[in-house]
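User: Show me an example of a complex going from sequences to structure tokens.

Assistant: Sure. Here are the input components:
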Amino acid sequence: MKIKTSRFGDLEIDGGKILFLPEGVLGFPAHKRYILLDDDRQGPFIWLQAVDNPELAFIVIDPLALDESFDVRLYPKDLSELKADGMRDVSFLVIVTVRREEPPCIILNMQGPLAINHKKLVGKQLVLSSHDVPVLLVPQAS
Amino acid sequence: MLILTRKLGESVQIGDGVTVSVLGIKGGHVKLGITAPPETQVLRDELARGIKEINLKASRVAGDDLARLASSWDKGMLKVEGTGED
């Protein structure tokens, strides 16, 4: 199917890969369908584009690409909202905020990672209390 | 909304396993003790609001930002910070 985006123009996407976030992303409750633009992935960075709002997109990272030990504890309520049978169905994405400075600086939203049931393509943004926030071991600059 | 008055040391029970106790009162601050089953998430109200604000900022990303970040990343020049790290 075709979608419009403000950053990338018209895109042809695979309708079978659309992620459904029943509550949306916090602050954007009206937009529930997203697509990961996997083909444009560079390093750990991936675009997460809203399907129904051309202007709404985020850069997300796959935290496992930065730190293999990344893990988040999910509550049974989260698993059931994600329609997941267990943790093996769930992967995570972390939203990136870009700071306008040189050299570039990014802030990873570790407090609110997106949990995605990659089998059923259902997701939700978690809100973690401070003792549940994972520390991401980011490789040091060479 | 149910409104209850509690004294220092008194508690309120909610449902089957949640107890909220007033442990201390000082100035404008009330110290609460919360006992809840492990499957119940207890969150400070302002957390979700903070995440909402971060999302709004993150959504103002430019189309060429990803390539710029990736290139800095490759050169080992990208500064990475995380929220929620003390």
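The lines above are the inputs; the final block is the predicted structure for all two components together. The radius of gyration of chain B is 21 Å.
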